[in-house]
Amino acid sequence: MSGLSYRSLTFMFFIAFLLWSSNFETCNARRGKHWRQSRATSASLYKKKGKSGGSSSNHHNSGGSKSKSKSKSPSHKAPPNPTPKPKEEIPSSPPQKGNNAGHSTTFNVLNFGAKGDGSCDDTKAFQAAWASACKVQASMMIVPAEYEFLVGPISFSGPYCQANIVFQLDGTIIAPTNSNAWGKGLLQWLEFTKLRGITIQGNGTIDGRGSVWWQDSPYDDPVDDEIKLIVPLNSSVEKNPPIPVRGNLGRIMPSIKPTALRFYGSLNVTVTGITIQSSPQCHLKFDYCTGVLVHDISVSSPGDSPNTDGIHLQNSKDVLIHSTTLACGDDCVSIQTGCSNVYIHNVNCGPGHGITCVSNITVRDVVMHNTMNGVRIKTWQGGSGSVQGVRFSNIQLSEVQLPIVIDQYYCDKSKCSNQTSAVALSGINYERIRGTYTVKPVHFACSDSLPCMDVSLTAIELKPMQERYHMYDPFCWQTFGELRTPSVPPISCLQIGKPANNRIQSDHDFC
User: Fold this and answer.
1) Radius of gyration in angstroms for the set of CA atoms belonging to the chain, rounded to a whole number
2) Residue 3 pLDDT exceeds 70
């Protein structure tokens, strides 16, 4: 019985062991299947996420721990598909000197056939060099030193030229004296038109060789009206009839005389360093220009050369002229109709006719020697508009015939008819004008219909120097303003206050 019980018990344990083993393998098998399915599912999800570029940040934050979110996909800030890198673009900038994508930015007139011997005509070479320089931004046209270039009338013109061209003048440019080169007459010799950012610089010279023109002065040439105020002590005025001067081929030069250097319709013009001499008429002229800078130049022609203004401005604005020597036969600086914001300082003037203004002007720190006029405002009868806000300050004069002039009866012809309309003048200020005069210290001749008003004088000290002319006291006609300090000599003719009636004729016509 006991044996049976022992065998039965052993058999039962054996059966129980088999049953337990079977259940364990089944459980492991199920667990293994579940693990493989889980891995496959995770891999499938990862592949899907990779193809779709990752889920949004909202999906990253929905369920699960933060560590699992970071391990399952890259950060949402990364671009889904990196875009191809664009081709590198060369930034737009002015070409450097000597290199413009393999092309030169300097153009020497010698390389375009110029001889520079003073006798061969180099006009075409200058034209060719300019045509090449015109196409390149910030290019430089070179007129080299130690050469003398004979150049006829020429226009260096835009408006399709690139900006910021430099005309480097270190040699000498001379004008032809052959009358055939001028035809029936031209208004300019060297002209720069419709350019943006043009600079003429260097140590060179522009020589107009004007002596062949000056003696050939027709009777109807403009004359300075103030000459009538200057009477020699012997009461005689030398009048030599004009003698026609012939050019180098024996022909008479044209009656129309050219300006040596003219700028027209240009923006940001600079002239510096050069010398302009012996121009047939004006030396340097600006018409319809904006942003003009002239400094450290020299203008030279004889004091008796007719109508040879140093610098002439017309219809131009934002002009600065400084550190310049002007010696000529007419106005050192002449500012005509349509000019505004003109500032002149540190200028040596003389010989010449002084500085003439008809616009909003500041002139200061100027030295004048042996000139006809010092500071002058002149207008023609029959004009319209106004001149306002003109200031002359710290002007040093030496042997000047007429230091301070306002003339609203100006006439540059042999005869002018009287007219009632006139340009209105107001706000004219003279400060610290000192020196010596040889004819008359002050001459104010204002219009009967539109008297001058708000004319102020401060620290005026002008002493007479007897030379060869009759001398006169200060003269005022229809001039109103104030003497802010005692003057030498006393200017008692100035009327204090304002006139009974003074108006601007046109609200829209201003200089």
Assistant:
1) 44
2) no
Three-state secondary-structure class, residue 431: strand
**AA identity, residue 489:** P
Catalytic residues, which ones? 330, 353
Among 65-74, 361-370, 417-426, 473-482, the range scoring the smallest mean pLDDT is 65-74
Query: Scanning the structure block, which residue is given the tokens 């006169």?
Result: 472
| CA angle (298 as vertex; 293, 301 as ends), nearest 5 | 130
Percentage with pLDDT > 70 across the chain: 70
Which H helix or E strand runs over 464? strand 452-464
Q: Are 494 and 444 in contact (CB under 8 A)?
A: yes
Whose CA is closest to 158, among 123, 202, 191? Answer: 191
Residue of 318, 316, 317, 407 whose CA lies nearest to 354: 407
Which H or E run contains 147?
Answer: none
Burial of 183 (0-12, 13-18, 19+ CB in 10 A): exposed
Residue tagged 């130690």 (tokens): 146
CB atoms within 10 A of CB 222: 13
* Rounded Cα distance, 392 and 404, in Å: 10
Q: What is the pLDDT of residues 321-376, one digit of tens each?
A: 999 999 888 889 989 888 889 999 999 988 777 777 655 789 999 999 989 999 99
pTM of the predicted model, to two decimals? Answer: 0.72
Average per-residue pLDDT in the chain?
79
Compute the distance between CA of residue 443 and CA of residue 439 in angstroms, rounded to an integer.
10
Beta-carbon count within 10 A of 242 CB = 13
Contacts of 204 (CB under 8 A, 6+ apart): 143, 145, 169, 170, 171, 172, 173, 274, 275
Burial pattern 21-60, b for ≥16 Cβ within 10 A else e, equals eeeeeeeeeeeeeeeeeeeeeeeeeeeeeeeeebbeeeeb
Query: 161: which residues sit within 8 A by CB, 6+ positions away?
Result: 134, 135, 195, 196
Phi, psi torsion values for 60, nearest 5 degrees: -60, -30
- Where do we find the tokens 């002319």? 469
